Amino acid sequence: MTESKSRRGYMPSDQKEFVQQISTLRKAAKDVRYLLEEGYPMKNATTFVGNHYLLSERQRLALARSLTTEGQAEKRRAKELQRSDLTGRTVSIDGFNTIISLEIAFSGSTLLCCMDGTVRDLAGLRGNYRIIDKTTLAIRAIRNELAAARVSGAVVYLDAPVSNSGRLKEKIAEEFEGSGIDLDIQVVCDVDRILMASSCVVTSDAVILDACESWYNLTVVAIEREIGSYPFVRVLGEREML
């Protein structure tokens, strides 16, 4: 079946909302971050601040996905592994989470640089997924980074309820053939629960990062390796992200 050509995660309005209005968005981010540090829930903080600055739903989602408390960001960063830590180990990969973000990167669409050092997207899966021409590039980027890290194996978890998960499983297996990596691809209904109890996890999902034993920031490393400099959206300045 022919892969469709598509820009995953692309929205024409992003030029206005994340480039032309970035100064407003950064003011809003500072206010949301203040409220989070004061103990306000994310939903309440982004609603209150978003209403004040008249932000779009997409801008509010960007704030929610980019920001957390400094304490929470530090806890996540403390569990982050380096490439050298992966040698001879088996990694557990949040399949759709990782592949979609890389598809978006290869599409040149909006990716968020977040407080915890991850990158997150605004695509929103919602149970629907289709393979596009960027999917092959995304899978190869994962394969190349795992090979560079000299892992012994990888378990890729795909959400069973998501459409085309079976086709994606076949695509991943095809691209990893001959890589020398012991690959296991599992289509399951409880990906988050499994990864939350795992180590050497590859994901940017905040809930999983908070619960897992350790994680590797493969998406960021793979983007730097395969694409180079990327125009990530930063809702906070670089110094504020530290």
Explain what you see.
Helix 3 packs across helix 4 and helix 7 (133-149) packs across helix 8 (165-176). The longest helix is centred in the middle third of the chain and has 17 residues, at 133-149. Strand 3 and strand 4 (119-121) form a beta hairpin. This protein is 50% helix and 13% strand. It starts with 13 loop residues before the first helix and ends with a helix. It is α/β, with parallel strands linked by helices. The protein is built from twelve helices and eight strands. The strands form three sheets. Strands 6-5-2-7 form a four-stranded parallel sheet. It has a two-stranded parallel sheet with strand order 1-8. A two-stranded antiparallel sheet has the order 3-4.
Largest sheet: 4 strands, parallel
Residue-averaged pLDDT:
94
Helix content: 40-55%
Structural class: alpha/beta
| Rg value | 18 Å
Provide the low-confidence segments as ranges: none
Could you give the distance between the termini? 45 Å
Order of helices and strands: HHHHHEEHEEHEHEHEHEHH
- How much of the sequence is in beta strands? 5-15%
Q: How many DSSP H or I helices?
A: 12
How do the strands of the widest beta sheet line up side by side?
6-5-2-7
Number of strands: 8
